[in-house]
Amino acid sequence: MRRMRRTKALRDLVRETDLSAQHLVQPLFVVAGESVREEVPSMPGVERLSITELVAEATEIQAAGVGAVILFGIPSEKDEAGSGAYDPEGVVQLAVRALKESHPDLLVITDVCMCEYTSHGHCGIVRDGEVDNDITLELLAQTAISHAEAGADVVAPSDMMDGRVGVIRSQLDEEGHSDVAIMAYSAKYASAYYGPFREAAESTPEFGDRRGYQMDPANALEGVREAELDLAEGADVVMVKPATPYLDVIRRVKDATGAPVAAFHVSGEYSALKAAAQNGWIDEERAVLETLTSIRRAGADLVLTYYAKDAAAWL
Hey, is 264 helix, strand or coil? Predict the structure, then answer.
């Protein structure tokens, strides 16, 4: 077996899994204001950006070879109804317009959820201490339509409400946005790895947690069922989130559906690598590329990662 490992040329010749910039999506946090670049303390190298800075960052991302971004909005004000999520003049809607005007070839994906916009931090409308699934669906559809009208190429519902893909697909089609794709957060687990994101997006729940709508980390077959349901409702891409603790789920979903599969290498995964690298415990470049390759090897067609721009440069 060692004969084909002897030189780089031989190793490259028989490599089974490829990883390139075209497989990566860069997440970005957008905030209101002018000339804002705020570093997220728990995510070294990641910043909250105002729209002008976001446009400048997109230039660097494209120059590195990454062709897609996903936007997370942080409004200046929050309320119980999460009205900033579906405001036509909301921060994400304005950011999409600016990006499509300045970078028309950049694929713009938008996160469709309410946790960044609600004062209580949950992913929908709360009634009697619980998130009301069906009322939330209508607001998620309004959010997706507002993103599509702004020019988003793909909407990505991440809320984990039952039936949201079908409602969003139906209303997008009715409003003349049948060409807008849906990337569903299908197997989204109630994970401890989301902590840094919640700091960045200021979306930590004020009470309780999200285990009533996000998935139990112990369940893999349920993740497959979630993906199959989302595809039946009209999803174009299904996602597993987080990535590295759920490589087995990525493989199961890919094998069961054959559909395009995304994996989100989330904030906690990013921050763990960053912390180890900053302490000199690992070689950051090698560890990151090994991690992203493992996600691809498991079956992910695309990987959302805060390392996208850096990894593209390393590649």
Answer: strand
